[in-house]
Specification:
Elements: E1 9-13, H1 18-31, E2 34-41, H2 51-58, E3 62-67, H3 69-82, H4 94-112, E4 117-119, H5 128-139, E5 144-146, H6 157-166, E6 180-183, E7 188-191, E8 221-228, E9 231-235, E10 238-239, H7 242-255, E11 260-266, E12 272-278, H8 280-296, H9 299-318, H10 324-336, E13 342-349, E14 352-359, H11 367-370, H12 382-395
Parallel strand pairs: 1-2, 1-4, 2-3, 4-5
Antiparallel strand pairs: 6-7, 7-12, 8-9, 8-13, 9-10, 11-12, 13-14
Bound molecules: arginine.
Length: about 400
């Protein structure tokens, strides 16, 4: 079945790497369409300067680069921190949080440049295809979607290399990494290739954002994180905009080897996958946030919110950022954060982290009430009745 003529102009999420370069040309050949390249800067630290020229040399009619770093941290990373989002108890969702943002602007750029479809380079086995396509669907349901990896007959890197050679596609000779990488301001992830054996330890040379704990400074570092309504606003008393704050936190925590994780996770599509992550700044922000909550959240509010965490994380992981149930959850979470203003102090040392202090103008912690030394607050004799009534049912069991 010919694909020709299905779409007039397609907006491709493009990185300049081998895969998306091949996709660019393949779209032109197979769909007989024009291609607009789109690249989102979410802090992946790749050189974007020569990208438009490269895209055009490969056949694109236009190339749009969007700097999304500030929006990423402000509207995706920080809401996740406010909700302590953590998937399967371990993964801070670095990739999952960036995908809906990248897809949102992908759809916008597509319409702005007169495209009737979008194309992405995510494979048919991963979570990313789902996250992208659920977002297009939620925000622009009429937009056509092309996922070449699920359509074409190229199945490997050598296939792609051969295709590139045949069509004279300029590919920069990069050293072939033995795993798949995804980086942004929050994290870097590694999976696939030599990491597919879950028993095989990652090579030390793989890590990018963190110093090895063994090599980290012998002196610990301390950092004070300030929050307003659950949102990080300052480091050591200095107010910082979201992207700058996370960048600084990454440097400090990364230098001390904090934030490495090695796990096997359940992908939405139904398979297990081994992933290694570095999330230095995010790890510290989440620990500091938890610590501040410990003095500012009512017990029952905290416990209700805690019950929502696995669900919140699962929705982020599975790509439902723009879903009605997510709106509801986020509203509830943000409502819980009204009093979460203040500071927490965290100590970083050779890959580990410890909270060493927390303070807040809204603190619910009452030193007199909690003290072991003082008799004040309530009549301790009342505890006798409290325990008796709590125990009524327990003594009746036979
Ligand atoms: N397993 C992680 C996730 O699903 C990371 C995915 C990284 N994606 C990639 N294309 N390398 O969120």
């Amino acid at each position: 079945m010919s694909r020709k003529g299905s779409f007039r102009r397609v907006c491709l999420a493009y990185s300049g790497g081998l895969d998306t370069s091949v996709i660019l040309r393949w779209l032109i050949e197979e769909y007989d369409c024009e291609v607009v390249a789109y690249c989102a800067d979410v802090g992946q630290e790749e050189e974007l300067d020569g990208l438009p020229d490269k895209a055009k040399a490969t056949g694109a009619v236009d190339c749009v680069i969007r700097d999304l770093r500030e929006e990423f941290v402000r509207d995706f990373v920080y809401p996740a921190i406010r909700g302590n989002a953590i998937y399967e108890g371990t993964y801070l969702l670095g990739t999952a949080l960036a995908r809906p943002l990248i897809a949102k602007h992908h759809a916008l750029v597509a319409r702005e440049t007169g495209c009737d479809a979008v194309a992405h380079g995510a494979t048919g086995k991963g979570n990313d295809q789902v996250r992208f396509e659920l977002t297009y669907r939620a925000l622009d349901p009429e937009l056509g979607v092309i996922a070449p990896w699920r359509e074409w007959e190229l199945t490997s890197r050598p296939d792609c290399m051969a295709y590139a050679q045949k069509h004279g596609i300029p590919v920069t000779a990069t050293v072939d990494k033995p795993y798949s990488i995804d980086r942004n301001l929050l994290h870097i992830s590694f999976e696939g290739g030599i990491l597919e054996d879950p028993w095989r330890a990652p090579d030390e040379s793989m890590f990018v954002m963190t110093t090895s704990p063994e090599e980290a400074p012998d002196a610990a570092a301390e950092v004070i994180v300030g929050f307003e309504k659950g949102t990080p606003v300052s480091l050591d008393g200095e107010s910082l905009q979201p992207a700058a704050l996370l960048r600084r936190m990454n440097q400090i925590a990364g230098a001390h080897g904090v934030g490495r994780v090695d796990m096997v996770e359940n992908r939405f599509v139904g398979l297990k996958s081994r992933g290694v992550y570095e999330t230095p700044g995010g790890t510290v922000l989440q620990a500091a946030h938890r610590a501040l909550e410990s003095i500012t959240l009512d017990r029952e509010v905290m416990h209700e919110r805690d019950r929502l965490i696995p669900r919140f994380a699962e929705l982020i992981y599975n790509g439902f950022w723009y879903a009605p149930e997510m709106e509801f959850l986020r509203a509830a979470i943000d409502r819980s954060q009204e009093n979460v203003t203040g500071e927490a102090r965290v100590r970083l040392y050779k890959g580990g982290l410890q909270v060493t202090g927390r303070r807040s103008p809204n603190s619910l912690y009452d030193e007199a009430l909690s003290s072991f030394d003082e008799a004040g607050g309530y009549d301790q004799a009342d505890a006798t009745g409290f325990i008796h009534l709590q125990g009524l049912r327990l003594g009746r069991r036979s």
